[in-house]
Structure formats: C-alpha cells, structure tokens
Amino acid sequence: MTQQALADEIGATRQTIHVIETAKYAPSLELAFRIARVFNLKVEEVFSYHLPLD
Prior knowledge:
Layout: H1 3-10, H2 14-21, H3 29-38, H4 43-46
Helix pairs in contact: 1-2
C-alpha cells in the first residue's frame, strides 16, 4: 500500500503518513485506530511505545 493510498483511506495527508513511518511524529489515538483498522489489526500490533529510561 502506498503512503497516498493509506492517507486517502484514513483521511490524512501523505506527508502525515511519512512522518509517522519515520518516527518523527506520533499519531493521535484516533489516527492510530484508523490506521490499525485499515490493516484489520489491533493498535498495539501496529504501534509500540517505549517509555524513556530515567
């Protein structure tokens, strides 16, 4: 799937998909759920979050 196709599917821009893929931007919960739904996956199967070590 292209960045543009995914963007069109979830109502975002191709640039938004690019910065999410390159870890320069963390998507909102709503956007994360939309992306997961496109791939018929759970959010935690698409995204992970690691707390920084203090």
